[in-house]
Amino acid sequence: MTTFLESEQQSYGSPRVAVIGTGYWGKNLVRNFHELQALAAICDSDDKNLHSIVEKYPCGKVTNSYGDVLTDSRIKGVVIATPAETHADMVRQALLADKDVFVEKPLCLSVKEGRALVELASERQCVLMVGHLLWYHPAVLKLKELIEEGELGRIHYIYSNRLNLGKIRREENILWSFAPHDISVILGLVGELPTDVQTQGGNYLHPNIADVTVSLLSFPSGVKAHIFVSWLHPFKEQKLIVVGDKKMAVFDDMEKKDKLLLYPHSINWKQQVPVANKAEAQIVSLEATEPLRAECLHFLECIQTRKSPRTDGKEGLNVLGVLQQCQQALEGGNVKTPSVSAPPSSPKPFFAHASAFVDDHVEIGEGTSIWHVSHVLKGSRIGRNCKIGQNVVIGPNAVIGNGVKVQNNVSVYEGVTLEDFVFCGPSMVFTNVFNPRSEIPRMQELRLTRVRKGATLGANCTILCGLTIGEYAFVGAGSVVTKDIPDYGLVAGAPAKLIGWMCACGTKLVWEAEKAVCACGEKYLKTGAVVSRVFNH
Question: What are phi and psi of 82, to 5 degrees?
Answer without folding.
Answer: -105, 175
